[in-house]
Design a protein that fits this description.
The complex is a heterodimer of chains A (126) and B (238). Chain A is built from five helices and no strands. The mean pLDDT of chain B is 96. Chain B has a five-stranded mixed sheet, covered by helices on one side. In chain B, strands 6-7 form a two-stranded antiparallel ribbon. Chain B is 30% helix and 12% strand. Chain B has two domains: 104 residues, Ubiquitin-like (UB roll); 130 residues, Alpha-helical ferredoxin (Fumarate Reductase Iron-sulfur Protein, Chain B, domain 2, Orthogonal Bundle). The radius of gyration of chain B is 20 Å and the shape is elongated. The chains are: A mainly alpha (126), B alpha+beta (238). Chains A and B meet through α1 and α3 of A and α5 and α9 of B.
């Protein structure tokens, strides 16, 4: 009898989905990083006004939003993997599930705060 | 030469110890199994598995100076520089990550449980032909590099993902066998097989570090097989 392996705390409850999200988010982060690097190299005498106009433009606001969401998703998939590797009954015995759940919830809440804070910063218009 | 061997008898020992032996190999480039047999003559209490002594049965998988391999086809000169000459000790431990039954003998139940999960046998729902199910040479060639696995467990027990989740992650050996039947033109259970592999653990715990490839005594490539399954899952899921 084969029992299905399930996990309700993984991002998509599905290995393929998580795997795909991690790859796509890595591409978004990579493209953003390279684009930002190219911009900074192309602007050796960057001043605050130019920077603010650039980063506050709608295309950059959208790009940075994608970046924040990608970092959060990427971090969740990665750290979910770390917690399910190392915070198990092999290391924590019977309390493993509790320990893992607490750590995962702390990570999830921190990421949520990070995303909300990021969105406010990007779209707040300050 | 100096040989250091992991000794543990759960019935009498509180914890495992490494025991040193001095073995006279007469400078020959013996196989590790030959050295073990010499030690066994000196100390009959030493426990290890071996059968065919030519790399076919897969019984004597063990950790040799930090790397998993079959004792019978691993020569002293290939273990590490200086081992054959006696300048460096030969260090033998059981396969990592599996419970030790005694000394170098491990309990392979977890390994076989995962093997069983991939249903490693041909499944075909169409009526059986009068003689046999034929394959073209091209279809048969797809099984090369897959069917040769002897289930020695060297790969799965060198994989950290298998160490941490031996009950959930199938491990490279079982996944290689899984792909062996996914790739078989005579098997019709592809959908059912794939449907059992798309959870976050069974296959996707592989992070592609390729320890399995580096230790496989038969020169097989489980990482590539896992990649092929992932591609099949992608085509099925998107």
């Amino acid at each position: 009898m084969v029992t299905r392996v399930t996990s309700v705390t993984s991002l998509g409850r599905n290995g393929l989905y998580d795997w795909l999200i991690q790859r796509v988010s890595a591409v978004v982060i990579g493209v953003y990083f390279i684009g930002m690097l190219a911009y900074l190299i192309a602007q050796p005498n960057l001043d605050y006004g130019t920077w603010k106009a650039f980063i506050g433009s709608v295309p950059m606001q959208i790009a940075t939003t994608l970046l924040v969401l990608s970092v959060a998703a990427h971090t969740w998939v990665g750290l979910w993997g770390v917690t399910t590797d190392y915070l198990t009954s092999l290391t924590f015995g019977k309390s493993a599930t509790g320990v893992r759940l607490v750590v995962q919830m702390v990570i999830a809440l921190l990421l949520l705060v990070y995303v909300l804070w990021g969105l406010v910063t990007i779209w707040g218009g300050a | 030469m100096k040989v250091s061997i992991y000794r543990y008898n759960p019935d009498t020992d509180r914890e495992p110890t490494m025991k040193e032996y001095d073995v006279d190999t007469q400078g020959k480039d013996l196989m590790v199994l030959d050295v073990l047999n010499l030690v066994k003559e000196m100390d009959p209490s030493l426990g290890f598995r071996r059968s065919c002594r030519e790399g076919v049965c897969g019984s004597d998988g063990m950790n040799i100076n930090g790397k998993n391999g079959l004792a019978c086809i691993t020569s002293l000169s290939s273990v590490a520089p200086g081992v054959k000459e006696g300048k460096k000790a030969l260090v033998l431990r059981p396969l990592p990550g599996l419970p030790v039954v005694r000394d170098l003998v491990v309990d392979m139940t977890m390994f076989y449980n995962q093997y069983e999960k991939v249903q490693p046998y041909l499944q075909n729902s169409t009526p059986a032909p009068a003689i046999e199910r034929l394959q073209s040479p091209e279809e048969r060639a797809k099984l090369d590099g897959l069917y040769e696995c002897i289930l020695c467990a060297c790969c799965s027990t060198s994989c950290p993902s298998f160490w941490w989740n031996p009950d959930k992650f199938l491990g490279p050996a079982a996944l290689l066998q899984g792909y062996r039947f996914l790739a078989d033109s005579r098997d019709t259970a592809t959908e059912e097989r794939l449907a059992r592999l798309d959870d976050p653990f069974s296959l996707f715990r592989c992070h592609g570090i390729m320890n399995c490839v580096s230790v496989c005594p038969k020169g097989l490539n489980p990482t590539r097989a896992i990649g092929h399954i992932r591609s099949m899952l992608l085509e099925r899921g998107i």
